[in-house]
Automatic annotation (TrEMBL):
Membrane topology note: Multi-pass membrane protein
InterPro entries: L-PG_synthase/AglD, TAT_signal
Main localization of the protein described in the UniProt heading: membrane
Protein name: Uncharacterized protein (TIRG00374 family)
Keyword Cytoplasm annotated: no
Presence of keyword Amino-acid biosynthesis: no
UniProt GO cellular component terms: plasma membrane
Pfam families hit by this protein: LPG_synthase_TM (PF03706)
Length: 347
């Protein structure tokens, strides 16, 4: 017998996918109407291979170090050694899956794979991912704000005020997440534990595990070191935009416009769009370039090339990894089980 809840859930999923697709297409159409397609084609035809290869190298180093950062956070959470190299491929593949499939399904794959492969509580993996996203938001906004200040006031004053306000709100909200363990312990857990429903008791255990993971990672000098690494990672990823900028004829000395456009384009991916964030990334990035005084047609060429470099390698890697590794459903060899979350970091 089919579950009566399946049809409404399927309809909601289809509606969200349809709205995201429509939003992405609309943004691409609006962008196409504002540029000269002949200039765009000519610019793309003048691409130089050297800077683009450099951009690919920067992206590879970026994702390897991101995988190392996530592995370090998991070791802190579970207080035991975990093999690092086997964790790199599924970490990168999770990003590729989110770039191919809608609704960030790669995040679910990452939680499933790491929890099964290393016998980790799912809440520990989720907690590490939450801290990872908080660090990414704060460091991306820092890099973007520095680039914004470097760009100067070529654009409208209203947009400049909006960017400053958004940066302040984003950093404050991200920092607030690090205080979630105290709030969860004092508010959410007592309510869930008093509930007679089994689902609530299961949820209380998950909340406690996530809160414990965030508490262990987000303390003192450890968090500061992870933040420094995160800033470096976003500088590497902004280097992909700079490589596209130089490869298409932009001045190598103009670092601020591509860095600012990269930040704005990345934040634009928060808007629903096509799989791989096509549409939102391009539209937001071109607006940032225009704010910096860059021609929109040239900016569109840079954004398209940078987006393809950011998207295609991880998407292709995810497909190949899933074809080669049949262990997503839990058929992998497991590490020795240790589900207890200890309070001390790995030495």
């Amino acid at each position: 017998m089919s579950d009566p809840r399946a049809t409404p859930n399927r309809r909601r999923l289809m509606l969200r996918m349809a709205l995201s697709t429509a939003a992405g297409v609309i943004l691409l159409v609006l962008l196409a109407r504002a540029i000269d397609l002949r200039v765009l084609a000519h610019t793309l035809g003048q691409a130089s291979a050297g800077p683009l290869i450099g951009a690919l190298v920067a992206l590879a180093l970026d994702f390897f170090l991101r995988a190392v950062r996530f592995w370090l956070m998991l070791e802190i959470v579970v207080a035991r050694r975990l093999p690092m190299l086997p964790s790199v491929a599924p970490f990168v593949a999770s990003f590729g899956m989110s770039d191919i499939l809608p609704l960030r399904m790669g995040d679910g794959l990452r939680v499933l794979w790491f929890s099964r492969r290393f016998d980790l509580p799912a809440g520990a993996v989720v907690g590490a991912m939450i801290v990872e996203r908080v660090l990414d938001v704060i460091s991306l906004l820092v890099v973007g704000y520095v680039a914004f200040a470097w760009v100067g006031s070529a654009g409208s004053a209203g947009l400049g005020r909006g960017i400053r306000l958004a940066a302040a709100i984003g950093i404050a909200a991200a920092l607030a997440v690090l205080f979630m363990p105290a709030l969860a312990t004092r508010l959410a857990l007592p309510l869930l534990e008093r509930s007679p429903r089994p689902l609530a008791r299961t949820a209380s255990g998950l909340v406690a595990t996530i809160a414990g993971a965030i508490r262990q990672i987000g303390t003192g000098s450890r968090l500061f070191a992870l933040f420094g690494l995160s800033v470096f990672l976003w500088m590497l990823e902004a280097g992909v935009m700079w490589g596209a900028w130089v490869g298409l004829g932009g001045s190598p000395a103009d670092l601020a416009p591509p860095a600012f456009a990269f930040t704005f384009a990345t934040l634009g991916t928060l808007v629903p769009s096509l799989p791989g964030h096509f549409g939102a990334f391009e539209f937001a990035g071109v607006q940032a370039f225009a704010y910096a005084g860059v021609d929109r047609s040239f900016a569109t060429a840079v954004i398209l090339v940078a987006h393809l470099i950011l998207w295609a390698p991880t998407a292709l890697f995810a497909v190949l990894w899933l074809l080669v590794d049949g262990s997503v459903a839990g058929r992998t060899r497991r590490e020795p089980k240790d589900t207890a979350l200890q309070g001390q970091p790995v030495r």
